Amino acid sequence: MKETIEYRPLTPRYDAPLAELIRTALETHHLDIPGTVYFDEGLDHLSQYYSSDGRSYYVLLKNGTFIGGIGLAAFDGDCCELQKLYLTDAAKGQGLGLQMIAYIEDRAREMGYGRMYLETHSNLQAAIHIYEKAGYTKIARPESVVHSTMDRFYIKDL
């Protein structure tokens, strides 16, 4: 049977599994601490957050089963922020992270963004590797950082 990979806009149906995936990943990397998305008030209802203008989030399904997601939100002018790239452990190591980044970059271009920013943490070495492989350049910490614990910042022209 051929595997199917598809992206779908985030709906309330996927709020709970997405929140669980994010919390589990942060716990694994010892980032279940204040100053991370772990403690964001809206983490259990991300479909509401991403329903606003300038924001998008897509869940990734493999053969109809939820395996991850990726999003974007307005950041500054023509720049948006890549947000919440997460994959289940079973989905890692298959090149899906790079595919997801390319997908969200295409959505960003369609929305009129010319640059994409992201913030991450030095504990997330696999993520840093993927971001750098996708062409993101490390920058100094911006003045406005929502998640204060993050210590690595990147940008890419789209």
- Unreliable spans: none
Oligomer: single chain
Give helix and strand order, one letter per element, not per position: EHHEEEHEHEE
**Beta-sheet strand percentage?**
25-35%
Distance between the termini: 36 Å
Supply the number of helical segments: 4
* Radius of gyration, whole Å: 15 Å
Percent of residues in helical segments?
A: 25-40%
Describe the structure.
The mean pLDDT is 92. The protein has a seven-stranded mixed sheet with strand order 1-2-3-4-5-7-6, sandwiched between helices. Helix content is 27%, strand content 31%. It is built from four helices and seven strands. The chain starts with a strand and ends with a strand. By secondary structure, the protein is α+β, with helices and mostly antiparallel strands. It has helices at 15-28, 46-49, 96-110, 125-133; strands at 5-9, 55-62, 65-76, 79-87, 115-120, 137-139, 152-157.
Structure summary:
This protein is of the alpha+beta class. It has helices spanning 15-28, 46-49, 96-110, 125-133; strands spanning 5-9, 55-62, 65-76, 79-87, 115-120, 137-139, 152-157.
